[in-house]
């Protein structure tokens, strides 16, 4: 019985030593010939989606020694110098002229010795014509208010939507009215007779999106 216990103890010790050796080997492979130096990465990095564009936003607090930030996606790369930035600054980077698609971005910083930070991976949509064609404009009706103006009654303007009204007033001046979400009706008192009211529904893809995206406008000839 004692001999059996002795064998079990030896087996346990051997397994433990093998595991430790394996871990050390893994660390040595990871470490290579010397110590790896990591640069501080962009903190709290966020991406804001837009129409054929993407905006990155993050804090530089931990990237004090970084000299550049690099963004990679597909087979493309964008490099932004960090010269002149301080550790309390907020970094914003806008990528434009992107095709409508779902993208995976890899973001990291480098220092003057080309040491890298840990990579931050972000997934984001870039919107375009497909997104626009899938949206429905806000429905409405209108009627004369009896005072030379008009009242527009909105069926529903949900969250993340707004409507732009553009027209010429009686003094010949261009006017723009932003109608926010959940508005039930809008009064227009001073539109110039025999002119058109331009009505544009604008959609924000999500609460963190970069912008409202305009749907095709509709034109109304309002007659009393």
Number of helices: 2
Give the N-to-C terminal Cα separation: 106 Å
Q: Given the C-alpha coordinates, what overall shape results?
A: elongated
CATH structural architecture of the largest domain: Sandwich
Q: Could you estimate the helical fraction of the residues in percent?
A: 10-25%
The largest β sheet comes out as: 5 strands, antiparallel
Based on the model shown, name its key terms.
single chain; 224 residues; alpha+beta; Immunoglobulin-like; five-stranded antiparallel β-sheet; four-stranded antiparallel β-sheet; 2 helices; DUF4998 domain-containing protein; signal
How does this structure look, described?
The strands form four sheets. Strands 10, 11, 13, 14 and 15 form a five-stranded antiparallel β-sheet that branches. Strands 4-3-6-7 form a four-stranded antiparallel β-sheet, with no helix packed on it. The radius of gyration is 30 Å and the shape is elongated. It has helices at 2-31, 129-133, and strands at residues 43-49, 53-59, 68-73, 76-81, 90-96, 101-110, 120-126, 140-144, 150-154, 161-168, 174-179, 185-188, 196-203, 213-214, 218-221. The model is unreliable at 1-31 (pLDDT under 50). By secondary structure, the protein is α+β, with helices and mostly antiparallel strands. The chain has two helices and 15 strands. The chain has two domains: 43-127, Immunoglobulins (Immunoglobulin-like, Sandwich); 135-221, Immunoglobulin-like, CATH 2.60.40. 17% of the residues are buried. 16% of the residues lie in helices and 41% in strands. A hairpin with a 5-residue loop joins strand 10 and strand 11.
